[in-house]
Design brief:
heterodimer, A: 373 residues, alpha/beta, Transcription Regulator spoIIAA, 2 domains, four-stranded mixed beta sheet, 12 helices, 4 strands, elongated, B: 259 residues, six-stranded mixed beta sheet, four-stranded antiparallel beta sheet, 9 helices, 10 strands, globular, disordered N terminus
């Protein structure tokens, strides 16, 4: 440990017109050292002579002191004589002055016009990339239909387990609680008109048409979409994706399609499961708070929820699954080759997926209204 | 930078009866060695022999299963938190890939240890960061981010960061890995220059024969089967005088010992 046995010392004595400064003790960067201005004490010598008077251990601390003296000498026009100091210190001091003088700040500034231009070009690049990625996925899907034996079923099943079965606990909890919340919220209005029983209709319709798919989508965007982006981003940083390309294997076929297919299949199943749990959550509140028997709740719900509603929810869920998979995989493949890049890809995948899910949901609302579904 | 070393005559590093491994599996058993101040000391051995495990235990990233590690006469492995923090200031580490913080520029990477462990003014820290980067030949790249420079430059910047607090000891993990011969040679020259100028003790984990024969004062060779040191000495002496086939095979790139 470079613990200083002797504190760093500097003493100044007047020798005619010159100021003689002697350095002694251990000069360690992590320990305090004398300051040049306090040593000067208001004097204005024309010449400063620096001498070694028993320097012990020394490091950059002594260099910083000497550099301060040099800077002062340069400003005041005085002469700082360091020749009497050890040659190693002298050489380092010269190196420090050189590095100080040659350092030119790297200008990263950009004017407004340039910034707008760059951002526009970047947007166009991203758009092209997305279109190209989507095209590759479609072509990959065509190849999959033509040659299903080439598809990586093992990976796909593994992903199905990861994004489907492993997501059951969190989907259960969230959808049950959504059912509970809807029941309480619905009851506030419906009770005023004596229509407590219609809570069953509200929950059934909301869960099956909307909330089941939407909440599952949001959960999976955070859980699976981020995981896809992080995994693929990490693979890119490790050059695993490059290795696939150089072997003539398509990263889309190998990595993206199994994940997309897994989500496409598992999302509707999870959404249906979420519907059931949401309905049960609503039933629990209806039973305990609104005193509606479960049979009445069920029968009332079936008067309004039919297979077309289930179809709407399923179509939405499958679409959301594709959106989550595409966002996660695209962000992962586009990730920068660094730890920070992987983190950004995961965040971006979640944000993109949730944004697109909401946009798609709005489009579906309009579309199904036109189709009278 | 331990300065043209004066002070006590204790060894820079003392390792006594060190046993280390992972999850109960012993990788190295009862390893003892010491490194004098100002020595360029190599830890060599084949893949999987425990070089990196030893390094991680020396620098405190893993706690040894048994034994003691001391730096400059101060115990590290069994020190309390405050003492450990003090000892940490005495050594720097160059990781295999440089391990530069990607969100910081090279200047900021070098400045961070100075900001954390010294009371220097921002201007002084900036001056010192520039000096350290100049010492490793990276003048003009102070404001570049790690992603914008080559692998060799990352290593040199990592070395500058390791030297930021002028440590008495610097650990280098595979400094030549992934570098071209010229860059590797330059890094070796830099290592020697740091030792000659500041009297720094350098502990280098490597299996790069050119570096080992070029700059090592002394080496220890680890072996997976023995779970410990099988040879110790200057590389040239070991290469010519050792009768251990494993040592000869390693130092002669696979050529077997002729009986």
């Amino acid at each position: 440990m470079s613990v200083s046995a002797q504190p760093a010392r500097a003493e100044a004595t007047q020798e005619g017109e010159a100021l003689a400064v002697t350095l002694a003790g251990d000069w360690i960067i992590t320990a305090p050292r004398p300051g040049w201005n306090s040593l000067l004490a208001g004097r204005a010598p024309k010449r400063v002579v620096l001498r070694d008077a028993g320097l012990g251990q020394w490091d950059s601390s002594v260099l910083l002191f000497l550099f301060e003296v040099q800077q002062w000498a340069r400003l005041t026009g005085a002469h700082a004589d360091t020749k009497a100091l050890p040659a190693k210190i002298h050489a380092l001091l010269n190196q420090m002055s050189a590095s100080h003088e040659t350092t030119v700040p790297f200008d990263r500034s950009q004017n407004f016009i340039e910034g707008v231009g760059e951002a526009t070009l970047d947007l166009a690049r991203k758009g092209r990339k997305f279109a190209s990625f989507l095209g590759e996925c479609v072509l990959g899907a065509v190849r999959l239909v033509k040659r299903p034996q080439k598809f990586r079923w093992a990976d796909c099943l593994d992903e199905m387990q990861q994004c489907g079965a492993m997501a059951l606990p969190i989907v259960s909890l969230i959808s049950f609680l959504v059912g509970v919340t809807l029941a309480y919220t619905g009851a506030i209005v419906l009770r005023q008109y004596g229509g407590d029983i219609y809570v069953a209709d509200l929950i059934g319709l909301s869960m099956v048409r909307e909330m089941g798919a939407l909440m599952t989508g949001v959960v999976l965007a955070g859980r699976t979409g981020a995981a896809f982006a992080a995994t693929l981003g990490n693979m890119k940083a490790n050059e695993e994706i490059d290795a696939l390309e150089t072997l003539g294997l398509s990263a889309v076929d190998f990595l993206v399609l199994p994940r997309l297919f897994a989500l496409f299949v598992m999302m509707p199943l999870l959404a249906m499961y979420a519907n059931a749990l949401g309905i049960v959550g609503g039933m629990a509140v209806s039973m305990s708070v609104l005193k509606i028997p479960p049979t009445a709740y069920w029968v009332e719900m079936l008067t309004i929820v039919d297979l077309s509603d289930l179809l709407v929810g399923t179509i939405k869920a499958a679409t959301f699954g594709l959106i989550i998979g595409l966002s996660g995989c695209l962000r992962g493949i586009e990730a920068e080759r660094s730890a920070a890049g992987v983190g950004r890809a995961a965040t971006s995948a979640v944000v993109t997926a949730i944004l697109l899910i909401i946009v798609a949901d709005a489009i579906f609302a309009v579309l199904f209204d036109i189709l009278k579904l | 930078m331990a300065a043209p070393a004066t002070g006590t005559s204790t060894a820079a590093i003392e390792v006594a009866h060190l046993t280390c491994g992972y999850d109960g599996n012993v990788v190295l058993q009862d390893v003892t060695f010491s490194v004098p101040k100002g020595e360029i000391f190599f830890v060599i051995g084949g893949s999987g022999c425990g070089k990196s495990t030893l390094l991680r235990n020396l620098i405190g990233l893993h706690h040894p299963m048994a034994g003691r590690v001391s730096f400059m006469g101060h115990s590290f492995s069994d020190a309390d938190l405050t003492a450990r923090r003090e000892v940490l200031k005495t050594f720097g580490v160059l990781y295999q890939g440089g391990a530069l913080w990607s969100s910081l520029t090279l200047r900021q990477n070098v400045a961070l240890p100075l900001e954390e462990h010294t009371n220097l003014s921002p201007r002084e820290i900036a001056e010192l960061s520039c000096l350290k980067l100049a010492q490793v030949g990276l003048t003009g790249f102070e404001d570049y981010y790690p992603a914008e420079i080559s692998g060799g430059m990352k290593k040199r910047a990592g070395f500058a960061r390791a030297l930021a607090l002028d440590p008495a000891i610097v650990f280098l993990d595979e400094p030549s890995a992934g570098l071209d011969p010229v860059t590797s040679r330059k890094l070796d020259e830099l290592i020697v220059q740091v030792r000659d100028t500041f009297g720094t003790t350098l502990v280098i984990v490597s299996h790069e024969l050119a570096s080992i024969f070029g700059i090592a004062d002394r080496v220890i060779m680890l072996d997976r089967g023995e779970k410990g040191i099988i040879a110790e000495g200057s590389p040239r002496t070991l290469a010519t005088q050792s009768r251990d086939s494993r040592v000869i095979e390693f130092l002669h790139r696979g050529d077997k010992l002729v009986p």
